[in-house]
């Protein structure tokens, strides 16, 4: 049943992505409500897919790259729905939903079998959940930074067209960028700590210095510098936007490396 729910989710996320991109292109500007409803329906089916997979597997479905990417997509859409209901930032869906759809497509291309876990790995979902939620926050910071740079460029070039009018205020985007990093960094920190503790418990070593761990530590160090820069030096606005775009490129690079390798170190 979880496969059926997953496939229906793909369909609705595809439709939602299409509608949001049409809205971004300047056509049918009144369709944001339909876009939001379609995304919401897709989110409901996505939730059903995750819950049914958990019931079928008997554990939290965060033990494979398929499940991790699916959860990442789910959390992204959840963030969008919450922000849209509170702030009515319609254009945010034109950036977030395509990312969520690409993540889900990537998950669909990976092995979907439900793994039987040894008891020692039953609680590894805590490490994966914290790490993924931190990654979601960094994705939001990336999107806010990208939108900031687009709007800042349009202001300088004086291309104040329809897209410019749809983008949120620069102050809002900078604030969203900062809050996302402030929220994501502690989560990533806890994810790294719990991962090291599980590694010690399962393998007798906190760190194995494999590519995934080095990438995670590099990401942590980068966002630590960015966060300290915002708090102490005042790295904001354009500089912060550039840094978060670069930082998320590193996150994606690490994630792609894990996918290409074929498994998470705990698999």
Q: Brief overview, please?
A:
The chain has 267 residues and is mainly α. It is 78% helix and 0% strand.
What does this structure look like?
- It is a single chain.
- This protein is mainly α and 267 residues long.
- It has two domains: 1-112; 121-267, no CATH class.
- It is 78% helix and 0% strand.
- Helix 3 (65-87) packs antiparallel against helix 4 (93-108) and helix 5 (125-157) packs antiparallel against helix 7 (170-203).
- The longest helix is centred in the C-terminal third of the chain and has 34 residues, at 170-203.
- 37% of the residues are buried.
Q: Count of DSSP E strands?
A: 0
Mean pLDDT: 86
Largest beta-sheet characterization: none
Overall 3D geometry?
flat
Helix content: over 70%
Radius of gyration: 19 Å
Order of helices and strands: HHHHHHHHH
CA(first)-CA(last) distance: 24 Å
Can you give keywords for this protein?
single chain, 267 residues, mainly alpha, 2 domains, 9 helices, 0% strand
SSE blueprint:
Blueprint: H1 2-24, H2 32-57, H3 65-87, H4 93-108, H5 125-157, H6 162-166, H7 170-203, H8 211-233, H9 237-261
Helix pairs in contact: 1-2, 1-4, 2-3, 3-4, 3-5, 5-7, 5-9, 7-8, 7-9, 8-9
């Amino acid at each position: 049943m979880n496969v059926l729910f997953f496939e229906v989710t793909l369909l609705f996320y595809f439709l939602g992505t299409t509608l949001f991109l049409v809205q971004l292109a300047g056509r049918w500007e009144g369709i944001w409500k339909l876009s939001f409803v379609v995304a919401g329906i897709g989110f409901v089916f996505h939730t059903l897919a995750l819950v049914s997979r958990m019931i079928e597997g008997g554990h939290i479905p965060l033990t494979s790259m398929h499940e991790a990417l699916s959860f990442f997509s789910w959390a992204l859409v959840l963030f969008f729905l919450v922000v849209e209901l509170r702030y009515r930032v319609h254009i945010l869906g034109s950036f977030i939903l395509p990312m969520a759809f690409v993540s889900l497509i990537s998950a669909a291309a990976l092995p979907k079998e439900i793994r039987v876990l040894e008891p020692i790995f039953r609680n590894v979902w805590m490490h994966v959940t914290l790490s993924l939620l931190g990654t979601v926050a960094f994705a939001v910071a990336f999107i806010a930074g990208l939108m900031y740079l687009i709007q800042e460029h349009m202001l300088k070039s004086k291309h104040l067209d329809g897209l410019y009018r749809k983008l949120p205020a620069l102050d809002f985007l900078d604030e969203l960028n900062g809050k996302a990093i402030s929220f994501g960094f502690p989560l990533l920190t806890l994810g790294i700590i719990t991962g090291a503790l599980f590694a010690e418990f399962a393998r007798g070593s906190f760190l194995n210095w494999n590519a995934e761990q080095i990438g995670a530590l590099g990401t942590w160090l980068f966002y630590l510098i960015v966060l300290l820069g915002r708090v102490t030096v005042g790295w904001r606005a354009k500089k912060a936007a550039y840094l978060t775009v670069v930082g998320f490129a590193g996150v994606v690079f690490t994630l792609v490396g894990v996918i290409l390798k074929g498994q998470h170190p705990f698999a």
